[in-house]
Amino acid sequence: MTPIVILGSLAAIASTISFAPQAIKIIRTRQTKDISLGMYAITVTAFALWCAYGVLLGQWPLIASNSICLVLSGFILVMKLLPRRAKDKVADAVTPKD
Amino acid sequence: MTPIVILGSLAAIASTISFAPQAIKIIRTRQTKDISLGMYAITVTAFALWCAYGVLLGQWPLIASNSICLVLSGFILVMKLLPRRAKDKVADAVTPKD
Fold it and tell me: Does A26 contact B at CB distance below 8 Å?
């Protein structure tokens, strides 16, 4: 692997997992007040477009990476939009039982 | 332009501007409690790597798009890390006077 490929791979891995800490934080705190609805509306649209682009090109690295981002950012958007009680229900459902 | 190029361009534009609403929200509300530090630490690292990747490849579309994302997500990370008083100072400094 060349340094360019290594750099690009690290960048792709970091981008792909970047939304996970925010999703985990929301599950833990159930708070989304300071999170921008506009940002996640645009972000989810962007990843949906990148996935469609990957499908048209038949490029699985694009599809795989952007699908993960779409699911994570989509979860954050849904949690932002849900009313308090529904947010708690979802967070309870995905929290591992002790 | 082919449909693939149009789709990819729309995806790139949406990705590039996606952090702007969050940055604007923070300037307006000065609140960052619900925002994940881990997410922005990873995100800023990812965009720095993508910029370096773009430089090594000599690809200005990569450099341009990822520089904008680096600046916007870097601003969000800095605001998340700053103590209250400093956050207010920065927000005041970038808020247009009436």
Answer: yes
Q: Residues, chain B, total?
A: 98
Cβ atoms of residues A53 and B5 within 8 Å = no
Q: What are the boundaries of each domain within chain A?
A: 3-94
Q: Distance between CA atoms of B32 and B38, rounded to whole angstroms?
A: 13
Are B50 and B62 contacting, i.e. CB atoms less than 8 angstroms apart? yes
Q: Does A42 touch chain B (CB under 8 A)?
A: yes
Contact B36 A45 (CB under 8 A): no
One of 3.10.180.10, 3.40.50.1220, 2.60.40.10, 1.20.1280.290 is the CATH number of A3-94, namely 1.20.1280.290
Query: Mind listing the pLDDT tens digit for each residue in A28-45?
Result: 999 999 999 999 999 999
A8–B contact, CB cutoff 8 A: yes
pLDDT, tens digit, for every residue of B38-68? 999 999 999 999 999 999 999 999 999 999 9
ipTM of the complex: 0.93
| Predicted local confidence at residue A66, as pLDDT | 96
